[in-house]
């Protein structure tokens, strides 16, 4: 029996990944060709099966078993049920229905090659075209964003488990200037206003459904330099900083070395320096253009979409934030690894108080692309101020490296804990089986 597009089954299907990314018409067509199966206390598939259909759980619970031992129980209400059951081929495990379950089997090629979602550009932000029937499904809103469509399924699964929703009333401040930002936000419904100290015509911007904010402060570890207010009653999806950095930023950004950069420029890439104007004027790369990070969101239309954009800053942090902003707006952006090797002077100038009324500058200047450690070893010929800057840059690089290693260690620790938990479950299963076997042996 086909699934009606406005039925309970269709709403459940809409929560599955990647069906949540399907445009409305394509989703309706898929529903028309889906058959719901009901199975009781039987196998959905067995270890070694090579049938390529993806199996999704609509209702009930399924035990994933290996050699008769229960490895995991998937309930239809769990986050894990939003993904196809044990989809690796050939099947590595048995899937057994616990009582009565309802499932659908979908063609893997159709599911893994969804039609592109429909977007339109409006006042500088991306608006997702959603039908009314999908408007209450926060996961649909998330998975339809280009940023999330590019993430590996394993990352998506961890993200979806960590997402939360929150609401703000019209006029309520979501992020205040100077405050520490702890979340990455995605607007599900409503509009927000981003505003900063008015220096020129680029002082405010509206953010609508499908747009996100907060990432630049999570990446740079700097306080907010603008205020974001709810223009209407808004519904937001939020993700904690640690999950954003490990599950979204890390797999999204790509880097280019100083050695590879000249060839990229020869092939048409453009250099975009996102430092403050006075820092850019003191030292910059040949043929680079300057748009400060604080103005990038508002001046994004000035950047060519048909060319690779190499984002540059002093030490790499702000360029990561700039590249992320460009990537989520469908630019081909990458980060110059370790920046130009010059550390910004902390507290010298408020990021929001300069640069908004500056014109782009294209000017040539000498640039020494030797690595920082070599420069430090030759620093006897430098004046003390320059030597201090180089030492600061090297120190910042080492701090960032240590931070990256700590994040990697945290990820490995989480994976280790998960493996230990699974091992404990298997050990308990084995002990129970041993007890059953001992009782059976005594009866003999």
Automatic annotation (TrEMBL):
Pfam families: cNMP_binding (PF00027), Rhodanese (PF00581)
Protein's recorded name: Putative transcriptional regulator, Crp/Fnr family
A GO term for molecular function: DNA-binding transcription factor activity
Coiled-coil ranges from the UniProt annotation: 402-443
GO cellular component: cytosol
Domain annotation Rhodanese: ranges: 265-351
Keyword annotations from UniProtKB, A to Z: Coiled coil
CDD domains on file: CAP_ED
High-level lineage: Bacteria, Pseudomonadati, Pseudomonadota, Gammaproteobacteria, Methylococcales
Top-rank lineage group of the source organism: Bacteria
Alphabetized InterPro entries for the sequence: cNMP-bd_dom (IPR000595), cNMP-bd_dom_sf (IPR018490), Env_Response_Regulators (IPR050397), Rhodanese-like_dom (IPR001763), Rhodanese-like_dom_sf (IPR036873), RmlC-like_jellyroll (IPR014710)
Organism this protein belongs to: Methyloglobulus morosus KoM1
Claim: Coiled coil is one of the keywords in the record: yes
Domain Cyclic nucleotide-binding: 44-107, 147-244
């Amino acid at each position: 029996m086909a699934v009606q597009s406005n039925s309970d089954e269709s709403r459940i299907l809409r929560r599955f990944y990647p069906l949540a990314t399907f445009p409305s018409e394509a989703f309706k067509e898929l529903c028309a060709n889906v058959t719901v199966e009901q199975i009781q206390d039987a196998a959905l598939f067995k270890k070694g099966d090579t049938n390529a259909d993806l199996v999704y759980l609509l209702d009930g619970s399924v035990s994933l078993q290996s050699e008769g031992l229960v490895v995991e129980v998937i309930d239809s209400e769990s986050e894990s049920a939003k993904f196809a059951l044990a989809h690796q081929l050939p099947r590595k495990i048995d899937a057994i229905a616990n009582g009565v379950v309802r499932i659908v089997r979908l063609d893997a090629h159709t599911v893994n090659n969804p039609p592109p979602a429909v977007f339109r550009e409006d006042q500088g932000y991306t608006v997702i075209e959603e039908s009314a029937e999908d408007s209450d499904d926060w996961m649909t809103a998330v998975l339809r964003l280009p940023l999330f469509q590019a993430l590996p399924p394993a990352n998506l699964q961890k993200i979806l488990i960590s997402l939360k929703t929150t609401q703000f009333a019209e006029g309520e401040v979501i992020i205040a200037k100077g405050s520490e930002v702890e979340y990455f936000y995605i607007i599900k419904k409503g509009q927000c206003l981003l505003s900063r100290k008015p220096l020129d015509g680029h002082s405010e911007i509206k953010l609508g459904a499908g747009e996100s904010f907060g990432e630049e402060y999570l990446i740079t570890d700097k306080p907010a330099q603008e205020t974001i207010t709810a223009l209407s009653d808004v519904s937001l999806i939020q993700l904690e900083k640690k999950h954003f950095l490990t599950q979204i930023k890390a797999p999204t950004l790509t880097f280019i070395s100083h050695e590879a950069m000249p060839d990229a420029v020869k092939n048409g890439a453009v250099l975009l320096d996102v430092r403050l104007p006075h820092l850019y004027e003191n030292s910059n790369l040949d043929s680079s253009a300057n748009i400060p990070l604080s103005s990038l969101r508002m001046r994004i239309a000035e950047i060519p979409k048909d060319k690779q954009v190499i984002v540059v800053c002093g030490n790499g942090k702000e360029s990561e934030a700039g590249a992320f902003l460009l990537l989520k707006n469908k630019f081909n952006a990458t980060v110059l690894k370790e920046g130009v090797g010059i550390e910004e002077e902390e507290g010298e100038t408020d990021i929001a108080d300069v640069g908004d009324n500056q014109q782009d500058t294209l000017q040539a200047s000498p640039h020494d692309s030797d690595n920082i450690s070599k420069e430090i070893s030759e620093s006897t010929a430098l004046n003390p101020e320059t030597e201090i800057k180089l030492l600061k840059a090297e120190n910042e690089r080492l701090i960032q490296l240590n931070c990256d290693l700590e994040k990697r260690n945290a990820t490995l620790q989480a994976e280790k804990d998960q493996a230990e938990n699974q091992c404990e479950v298997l050990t308990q299963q084995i002990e129970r089986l041993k007890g059953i076997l001992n009782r059976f042996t005594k009866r003999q």
